Amino acid sequence: MLIKNSFTQTVSNYMNRHVPKLTDQHTILDAVKIFRKDKIWILPVMDEQNLFVGALTPSAIFKALSENASIDEPILPYIIKNTITVYETDDLTEVRSFLLEKQVGQAVVLSADNRVSGVLDTKNIIQAYKTRSDTYGYSLESLFQHMQTGILALDYKGRILVANHAAESMCNIKRDYSIGHHFSEIFPDLIEFKSDNPQMTDIPLQRITIDHKKLLVKYKSLSRESKYWGGIILISDLTDYEEIAKELEITKRLERTLQTVLNTTNDAYIVIDQTGKIDMINEAAMDFTKKPKQQLLGRSVKLAIPEIHLEEALNDDFQGEKLEAMIIEKRKCLVQKTPIFKDHQRVGTIAKIIYKDLNKWKSVIKTLTDLEKEVSFYRGELSLIGGTPFDLDDIITQDPELKKLKHFARQSASGFSNVLLLGESGTGKELFARGIHNASHRTGKFIKVNCAAIPEELWESEFFGYADGAFTGAKKGGKPGKFELAHNGTLFLDEIGDMPLLMQVKLLRVLQEKEFERVGGNETINVNVRIIAATNKNLTEMVAKNEFREDLFYRLNVIVLNIPPLRERAHDIPLLAKSITKKLCHLMGLGNVHLSKTVLMALSMYQWPGNVRELENAVERALNAIESDVLEIEHLPEYIQKQKINQSSEPPALKKTNVEQVSISDFYKLNMDNAEKDTITFALNQTNGNRTAAAKLLGISRSQFYKKLRKLDIL
Ligand SMILES: Nc1ncnc2c1ncn2[C@@H]1O[C@H](COP(=O)(O)OP(=O)(O)OP(=O)(O)O)[C@@H](O)[C@H]1O
């Protein structure tokens, strides 16, 4: 259809337009001259307005001359009036049929207004057909050459007439070599072609191998008007398909194995794709949701199991790997969501739902919590024995806010007022407490009590001590409590927000009366103790909810130091990191270890939910991994190396501009090139070497990024 339409031609494309103007006043001699000169076998005769009058043919002239007409006579009497005419716009194929039908070889061509446009003869039609057949031929040839199926055309003796590119490449043959050769030279396994006998019948699909290529070959015999003249061989290359099939088979096998493994576990597993549709589930998941496979697989998890909120884990800011307690389908469970990545893109999420034997888990978690409490308690006890005195100067900072707090703490240290230290865990509350005590010049000891770590039954005896024989197993002579031990010194009540209400009442009484009795004793003991309390809880909120006594709160809330979290003073991070490294290296006997600029940058970027304590732990872990005297980014815990950085916001360390010695600005000011290099290396590390993503992370164009790589020689 396409080919046919593309060959639709009109008479105007092929007619002869160079026809001399002949009127009825021209002589027979004029006409003869034109016939001789222009080799035209029909001459249109027209009037003054070029309107068609009739035509003159050589046979009309012969007829006139044979009737003794003079050659100087006008042609008028010999003009043929009923000449065959066609129009310029007529379809050439139809005109050809029309001329055949009329048994004439030429016609006068007229325009729509019956003026003479030219003549059309058999030569013109042949030319048109030749052009058409050339175009057909060219189209078929390129179609043939560009087909993916290999094709070899054979003559009736099985000799190759023509081969397309696909056949040449599949059979590894050269055109010059193959043409004229017998097909069996290329396909010796195709027995049918071995003889010189014509292969009159088709050969169905056969698999053969040539040069490790797996081919599918089929022979189609060709004949016209029941005369056999050859055939074509059609070849398909199966090598790639077989590879794909093999991979598919492996994938299927892996999927079966994975499914079997998943089905053997007690926990429910649900896997979703990036659109939130459930991709895979195990039997436990069906058991847990009480839904059959059909209601889960392929369905949106949001609709199938709405309570799990698994689709939220597809968001970029999802950190993952947290165990959450949930109630799904009215059943208590623990859910762990883990994102699945492919080429640094989130492509899905796995949810592991623990819902069987939850009591076992509960007891494990309780044991862990108890152990933690115990460790914390004994740590507190240890600090009593060998605690080093802390000076407020040991608090490292260049943050104006924290500097002010240090100054204020020093000023209030010598007073008697109680101090309340507020701040997230690990921000340095204890450091402040010890520093205040040290600066207070109080003669007594610094005694720490971790209120969250005291077992309930020990509260009273811990605080007030016990008298001789107070209870079975009591130490002979009794034991002093923390209040007695802190006499003339400082009692640091850490985690005060965890103190039970009953104990709060008792504490308040001592704070008011400054006296108490030991448990089981009746002697009144007077003490001079300064209380420093600390908490990471919101005491105001607790008071409002009656979880903390208001009167005690106001007693403690005299001097309040609100210590900012580390992420709000990120410019302290490099300073702290260097100091911690120095301290730990000394303890670990490591000599001098330097932190690379990339490490300082990564540490500065991190949010530090566990504050300085978390920083200490991260540096300690990293120092255990180093082999030289430089701590590099790969030594840092993975979650810091691969932290999720909000591309739109600047790094936390850059947020405050009013500090004189900002660490990140150190990088830039001290050595622009080095800082740039480190930043780029860091970005590349973040993106696992993906340069486009790294450029995006840095907020610069790809071309700028590549320019910098070249400039800084990072290739
Ligand atoms: N500004 C600082 N300079 C040096 N070391 C610090 C600083 N802040 C905290 N640290 C160190 O961080 C660790 C945690 O500090 P600290 O125990 O005082 O925090 P905290 O707020 O009392 O924590 P929690 O509330 O969990 O008891 C300690 O080892 C401490 O020495």
UniProtKB/TrEMBL annotation:
Keywords: ATP-binding, CBS domain, DNA-binding, Nucleotide-binding, Transcription, Transcription regulation. InterPro entries: AAA+_ATPase, AAA_lid_NorR, CBS_dom, CBS_dom_sf, Homeodomain-like_sf, HTH_Fis, P-loop_NTPase, PAS. It comes from the Bacteria. Residues 15-73, 79-135 form the CBS domain. The keyword Hydrolase does not apply. CDD domains: AAA, CBS_pair_SF, PAS. PROSITE patterns: CBS, PAS, SIGMA54_INTERACT_1, SIGMA54_INTERACT_2, SIGMA54_INTERACT_3, SIGMA54_INTERACT_4. Residues 254-307 form the PAS domain. This is Transcriptional regulator with PAS, ATPase and Fis domain.
